[in-house]
Amino acid sequence: LVPENAIPEFDADMVESLDGYLEEWRLEQLRNGAEPTDDELQLFRAVWPEWAVSNFDDAYAIPSYCGWRFRHSDGRSWILLMFVRGYSFSGLEYEYHGLFSTKEDVLGYVRKLGTVYEEITPVDPLLIQRAKASSAARRPSS
């Protein structure tokens, strides 16, 4: 589960997340430090979670919520939810978030905190159009 607060406002080092959404000339400008438009910022935040999950294996780049189910010999069970960040070779940091009876309870709790990756919806085509239109004024003259 990717928390909403893990999504950067904008990061020029992650401009490739916008590949296929903006023109190559604009991506190059953004890589070189150009200021993104408001619509480009919204587009970046909309596409980043799916892009990051597909492109990173770094828990500092994508901290996540992890759940472990524990079962007692008498049949009772619960799920321990932790927020995890770090690297296996240098140490992980764990933040306790509680014990829950069901997966639905865990998801309900995490949904209140922000985006749940499995529920990310496709990027709104109107947002893509607005971002492209807002870029057009910044196109270098030939």
Structure in words:
This protein is of the alpha+beta class. Helices cover 35% and strands 20% of the residues. A 3-stranded antiparallel sheet has the order 1-2-3, covered by helices on one side. Helix 2 (38-55) packs across helix 4. 16% of the residues are buried.
Structural descriptors:
single chain, 142 residues, alpha+beta, 3-stranded antiparallel beta sheet, 4 helices
- Anisotropy-based shape: elongated
Structural class: alpha+beta
- What is the mean pLDDT? 82
* Computed Rg: 19 Å
Total beta strand runs = 3
Strand order, largest beta sheet: 1-2-3
How far do the termini sit from each other? 45 Å
**Strand coverage percent:** 15-25%
What's the quick description here?
The chain has 142 residues and is an alpha+beta fold.
